[in-house]
């Protein structure tokens, strides 16, 4: 089914959210503990099962009801189940602070195929719209009417949910190449005046596959996707270059100079939305249609690294193999 592979390497930390959060006191000696195992052993030791029934508490609510006791329990017990390793975390992170978790499968971090396909589709459609920018607005609308079934978001205009003519392809999840090809760290991300603790993928190297129908030229699709990603990044991520020139991020010019013909830079994951414009804002800027109830980030997202240097999240290199 799959026709070609793509290698993915993170340049700056990437956060693909699982939607879950946990208290930092579940990290002990550089390892993330299994919350269910911690709570079941805590209940057994404290003999509080009756209290749970009488107060109609759910197991997860124990982390809010017995905070201090639970922290002391974790400190003294050495038989708690470990889920995965945390390579590093801020020294000033307090036990009761929550951490946003990254997406994993059986404790192994992965980048979902849906995330990668979304990147390809957004880049592909933007590239087509960019090339059609010089023609009349009604022709752009006509193009959209005959193009891919765009995202099913309730805020997206119904007229853009039409089927259009785009190659049908599938994208696999991106798995790390080995157990040594990634590191999970906890870092702070700044959103305006707020500072959130998040898990990130650091130094991640993985591979995913793209599959196409038999009637599609795989080499042609590979070139289209690569060129579209390059166009999308170049046109809507220019602010990165300014920040890089101020020493906050790695030198993008050097990275670009070393790119090979089959390599492109992209932005993936949460908290890089300030730079990676979506189809919503693309269509709005091209004055194709009005967007309602669509929020765009108003402040720069920066992740604090181990040495307190601030870097842009989500910067990633794709190599089309």
Give an overview of the whole structure.
The protein has 321 residues and is α+β, with helices and mostly antiparallel strands. The chain has two domains: 2-14 and 109-175 and 211-320, no CATH class; 20-102, no CATH class. It is 31% helix and 26% strand. It has ten helices and 17 strands. The chain has helices at 35-46, 49-54, 62-65, 67-76, 113-131, 137-145, 218-236, 238-245, 252-257, 279-285, and strands at residues 2-10, 17-23, 27-28, 31-33, 82-85, 98-102, 104-105, 108-109, 169-171, 175-176, 183-191, 194-202, 205-212, 263-267, 301-304, 310-311, 315-320. The strands form four sheets. Strands 1, 9, 10, 13, 14 and 17 form a six-stranded antiparallel sheet that branches. Strands 2-6-12-11-15-16 form a six-stranded mixed sheet, with no helix packed on it. β11 (183-191) and β12 (194-202) form a beta hairpin. The longest helix is centred in the middle third of the chain and has 19 residues, at 113-131. The chain is elongated and about 65 Å long. Residues 146-164 have low confidence and may be disordered.
Q: What's this model, at a glance?
A:
This protein is of the alpha+beta class and 321 residues long.
Provide keyphrases for this structure.
321 residues, alpha+beta, 2 domains, 6-stranded antiparallel sheet, 6-stranded mixed sheet, 31% helix, elongated
Radius of gyration: 23 Å
Strand content: 25-35%
Order of helix and strand elements from N to C terminus = EEEEHHHHEEEEHHEEEEEHHHEHEEE
What is the arithmetic mean of pLDDT? 76
Task: Give the overall form.
Answer: elongated
Given helix and strand content, the structural type is: alpha+beta
The biggest beta sheet is recorded as: 6 strands, antiparallel
Low-confidence stretches: 146-164
Give the strand tally: 17
Number of domains: 2
Helix content estimate: 25-40%
């Amino acid at each position: 089914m799959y026709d070609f592979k793509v290698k993915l390497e993170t340049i700056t930390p990437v956060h693909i959210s699982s939607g879950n959060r946990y208290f930092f006191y579940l990290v002990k000696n550089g390892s993330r503990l299994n919350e269910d195992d911690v709570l079941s052993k805590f209940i057994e030791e404290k003999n509080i099962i009756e209290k749970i029934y009488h107060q109609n508490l759910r197991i997860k609510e124990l982390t809010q009801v017995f905070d201090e006791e639970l922290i002391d329990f974790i400190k003294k017990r050495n038989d708690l189940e470990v889920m995965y390793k945390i390579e590093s975390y801020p020294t000033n992170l307090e036990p009761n602070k929550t951490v946003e978790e990254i997406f994993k499968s059986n404790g192994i971090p992965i980048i979902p195929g849906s995330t990668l396909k979304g990147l390809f589709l957004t880049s592909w459609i933007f590239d087509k719209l960019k090339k059609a920018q010089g023609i009349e607005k009604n022709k752009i609308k006509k193009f959209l009417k005959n193009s891919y079934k765009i995202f099913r978001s309730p805020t997206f205009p119904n007229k853009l949910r039409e089927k259009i003519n785009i190659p049908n392809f599938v994208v696999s999840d991106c798995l790390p190449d080995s157990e040594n090809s990634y590191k999970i760290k906890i870092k702070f991300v700044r959103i305006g005046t707020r500072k959130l603790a998040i898990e990130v993928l650091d130094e991640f190297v993985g591979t995913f596959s793209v599959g196409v129908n038999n009637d599609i030229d795989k080499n042609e699709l590979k070139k289209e996707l690569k060129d579209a990603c390059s166009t999308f990044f170049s046109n809507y991520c220019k602010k990165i270059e300014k920040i890089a020139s101020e020493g906050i991020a790695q030198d993008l010019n050097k990275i670009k100079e070393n790119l090979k013909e089959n390599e492109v830079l992209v932005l993936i994951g949460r908290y890089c939305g300030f730079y990676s414009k979506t189809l919503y804002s693309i269509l709005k800027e091209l004055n194709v249609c009005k967007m309602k109830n669509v929020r765009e980030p108003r402040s720069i997202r920066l992740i604090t690294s181990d040495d307190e240097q601030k870097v842009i999240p989500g910067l990633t290199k794709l190599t089309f193999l």
